[in-house]
Amino acid sequence: MRNRSTVMAWATATCGVALAAVVFASSGPQAANDAVRRVRDSAGFKTAMTAIDRDHDRLVAEIVRLTEIPAPPFKEAARAKVFAEMLRQSGLADTTIDAEGNVIGVRKGTGAGPLIAIAAHLDTVFPEGTDVKVKRDGTRLMAPGIGDDTRGLAVLLAMVRAMNEARIATASDILFIGDVGEEGQGDLRGMKYLFQKGPYRDRIKMFISIDGAGGGDDITHGAVGSKRYRVTFKGPGGHSYGAFGIVSPAFALGNAIRRFSALTVPTTPKTTFSVGVLGGGTSVNSIPFESWMEIDMRSESAVELAKLDKTFLALLQQAADEENATRSTAQGPITVDPKLIGDRPSGQTSHDSPIVQTAASVVQAVGMKPRFSFSSTDSNIPISIGIPAITVDSGGRGGRAHALDEWIDVEKSSSLPGIRSALILLLTSAGLK
Amino acid sequence: MRNRSTVMAWATATCGVALAAVVFASSGPQAANDAVRRVRDSAGFKTAMTAIDRDHDRLVAEIVRLTEIPAPPFKEAARAKVFAEMLRQSGLADTTIDAEGNVIGVRKGTGAGPLIAIAAHLDTVFPEGTDVKVKRDGTRLMAPGIGDDTRGLAVLLAMVRAMNEARIATASDILFIGDVGEEGQGDLRGMKYLFQKGPYRDRIKMFISIDGAGGGDDITHGAVGSKRYRVTFKGPGGHSYGAFGIVSPAFALGNAIRRFSALTVPTTPKTTFSVGVLGGGTSVNSIPFESWMEIDMRSESAVELAKLDKTFLALLQQAADEENATRSTAQGPITVDPKLIGDRPSGQTSHDSPIVQTAASVVQAVGMKPRFSFSSTDSNIPISIGIPAITVDSGGRGGRAHALDEWIDVEKSSSLPGIRSALILLLTSAGLK
Q1: Residue B248 touches chain A, beta carbons under 8 Å
Q2: B332 contact A CB<8A
Q3: CA-CA distance, A108 to A97, in Å (whole number)?
Q4: Could A260 and B238 be called an inter-chain contact, meaning their C-beta atoms sit closer than 8 Å?
Q5: pTM across the whole model
Q6: DSSP H/E element including A373
């Protein structure tokens, strides 16, 4: 998912109309405004939105159906299979699953525009065995992964059906994608394959990610970079009583966590760190031969991330050294092995780029103020290789992403505007005929 | 297993003959010496040892057979079933498996002595799926659990057969027991049932545990007490980037481990602490909603153990409090739940008690110097309720208990003396007729 840091507000949000007029005096925004209004006011778009409005219950049913198919990291296949079939039934006969596991449905355009991709991710952060049954309380639905990003998948299906029903033609071919590996250790593997190895590499010229519930005013154009490690402390291990006094990898790990937790990082550019998963040890009465943790560090700034990375690696070694200095190494010392398991590039799609200009115009055209943000999303990969990309909301209210009590609200009047914004963005970018 | 702390040497071991003479001047040791010599020199005992010597290959084969039946904590049933059948085939028709899972075979005496029990434990520390195939290198056998305590089970079988072949009669009825739950989280459940709930509660007047390879000079008469906890820190959890700044149970846990690792404990009475297993967290990019550890604290002294326990519980709360003071609790605070998963009493069987006097005499009678030690073994339970109990070696050399490369050496001349000592101890205690 993206979990955004809003780094600057659009001019109108803070500076009022006068400055906004100056900003919009440039040709880019004005052209974008015109194109967006043309789509918004078109008969095709209106017909499409009527269909989405009418079929809102189907959207909700599809969110529930997809949410209840577990899609842990690296195990998205079951959900992918169902989503591919749903894409076909929604009108994309040309739907395949690529070698990495991404579901890709092609909607042909007139051939007059560049290839565009729009994606939501199949995977959730939740491990196998997590209860993914959706609990309903009125319009509020609660289940792990329901907003991040299962709602996004269902929105793609709704868009395809609405476009077909409205017989909308676009200049560009559009790839509708349900991708794998957005979360955690997936390390954007779906996007890396799509943009670097798969049959569409070098062909996609613009990318839109639909990720996370939200009202439709957020434009994630900045890629938060991240470094992730699985850090294993190893030692000789032994009996908790008989071998007492020898070095312990668990103690070294505790020291490392303590040091890590005490670091200070800048608020701007936003920089964060976290210990996610812990493990290691064989029994309560044995000194472990290994203890490990998986950690995550992120920053909007490549410089700050590199600084944090260096500090982190140093404190790991300090923790190992301190344990070796404190207890006996007669049976062997503590060693530490930080294995890089995630490495996402920082970067951003320029404010001047058509996709960002269009997205900002869309937000304004539906009466909201755009917020520009950085996050770590599928867009990181195209952004890192210079392909214009942004991530936007799938609509509706929601919260507690990555927690077991994750929820969305499918109350229709708050659920639809975000879908509406995303569809205008897509049709404008793809060149509505 | 027992992992011993030798707390005092027998007088002769350090002070020479003069002091030894003083110590042995009291009637207890002298009576014990006489009784032990009577057994050692009896025709019945000699015939029994001839049988054990002759059938040593069968002992080895039975060690291998039993070792290769996995017996993880709480899953000893398969091994118990086979061991019960082997006890029957070795001559104890009156063999049952009690409600807790202990195998108990009865060898009737003349009725002139109190009921005596001798036991080895069925369970190992190793989880399901551990490869328990025995690897042989000459007389050296390597496999998880082979010395702790599978060799002990096979020694019980050899004793029963040898006693029957020699037509040995004892005053006491003897229970031969293969018990469950000696290790780790088993928390001595086999013994707790036997002495507190089962049909033999209040009837057993003396207890001998055969546990772990060793030459036969060690007498564990002291019970090392232990407290074990599974400690879970809980918090609201959330996205590692989006929710950065909220309290983290992993950080609180790291702080607790750090504080725990820095405690000082006395060398005498030996007191220890360890973090065994770590866990918790759902993904690398989520702040966990829980992080947990399993810890073990032990002491020869009930007072020191209680002190350590109190300090530990306080530092857990301090770690939670400190995390709540350091980061935001807007989504909820960190709480800590220390669940007691092991509680073994401390205590000791007095040096003056007949069983310890007899064991010491046995060690001397076979030409060695007795070593007195404390450990955590099946004897903890009878000791804690005032029943004389000790734990002794099953014989032979061995090492690396609780490790995957655990080994024993079944070279006959070093394998037999420990069995010989244990049999003299048993027959003297049971009143050889």
Answers
A1: yes
A2: no
A3: 18
A4: no
A5: 0.74
A6: strand A371-375
B220 touches chain A (CB under 8 A): no
Alpha carbon distances (Å) from A55 to A88, A115, A166, A414? 17, 28, 14, 15
Partners of B250 on chain A (C-beta within 8 Å) are 257, 274-276, 278, 293
**Best residue in A75, A123, A255, A261 for a mutation probing chain B (most B CBs within 10 Å):** A261
Q: What CA–CA distance (Å, rounded) separates A5 from B241?
A: 9
Enumerate the β-bridge partners of residue A297.
Answer: A227, A273
For chain A, the farthest-separated pair of C-alpha atoms sits apart, in whole angstroms, at 80
Contact between chains at A294 and B277 (C-beta distance less than 8 A): no
Q: How big is the A-B interface in CB pairs under 8 Å? A: 253
CA A223, chain centre distance (Å): 10
B183 touches chain A (CB under 8 A): yes
A314 touches chain B (CB under 8 A): no
Residue of chain A minimizing CA distance to B256: A254
* Spatial separation of the C-alpha atoms in residues B1 and B27, rounded to whole Å: 34
Angle, in degrees to the nearest 10, between helices B43-54 and B412-430? 150
Q: Print pLDDT tens along chain A (433 aa).
A: 666 665 443 333 333 333 333 333 344 788 889 999 999 999 999 999 999 999 999 999 999 999 999 999 999 999 999 999 999 999 999 999 999 999 999 999 999 999 999 999 999 999 999 999 999 999 999 999 999 999 999 999 999 999 999 999 999 999 999 999 999 889 999 999 999 999 999 999 999 999 998 878 899 999 999 999 999 999 999 889 989 999 999 999 999 999 999 999 999 999 999 999 999 998 898 999 999 999 999 998 889 999 999 999 999 999 999 999 999 999 999 999 999 999 888 889 999 999 999 999 999 988 889 999 988 899 999 998 999 999 999 999 999 888 899 999 999 999 999 999 999 999 999 999 8
Contact list in A for residue B130 (CB cut-off 8 A) is none
The two structure tokens encoding residue B401: 């208990």
Contact A251 B257 (CB under 8 A): yes
Chain B residue whose CA is closest to A3? B242
Segment 114-173 of chain B within 8 Å of chain A by CB = 125-127
Strand partners, B104: B96, B177
Length of chain A: 433
Contact B113, B205 (CB under 8 A): no
- Measured from the Cβ of residue B96, the count of other Cβ atoms closer than 10 Å reads 12
| CA pair distance B159, B164, nearest whole angstrom | 8
B275 has a chain A CB within 8 A of its CB: yes
What's the ipTM?
A: 0.76
